[in-house]
Amino acid sequence: MQLQPAVAASLESWHRMIASGDLSALPSIVDADAVFRSPVANKPYASAQAVVLVLNTAYQVFENFTYHRELATDDGLSVVLEFSANVGDKQLKGIDFVRFNEAGKIVDFEVMVRPLSGLHALGEAMGARIGAQVGAFKAPA
């Protein structure tokens, strides 16, 4: 499946940021109204600021982060990225579901993680770093 050109460019930028360890360009590929769907929260976090905060923090929490596979949807606007990482002594596997708009901006970033022990470690580490901040970004019911 072929990604739409703007999506392909943004995804390439995302992979460059991950490889370099420098996510400073992240705001340039996130839509103002983007949402982040956490594997540990019921409601999504709304706004580009929330998405950038969560992704930057997760990148700092993860150790040995590696993407393994990438799949695209038929419309060329969404990707599924399989990854593995460690949080402390816990190993985890996960999937990033990323939806872009036609301008190539991230509009929805959803993460799923397994096993439960890895998810717990991730939730605790994220909560310790940004728990107080991120609650303000919860989307209304």
TrEMBL record:
Domain of life: Bacteria
Ranges where the SnoaL-like domain occurs: 12-108
Pfam families reported in the protein's UniProt record: SnoaL_2
Protein name: Nuclear transport factor 2 family protein
Organism per entry: Pseudoduganella guangdongensis
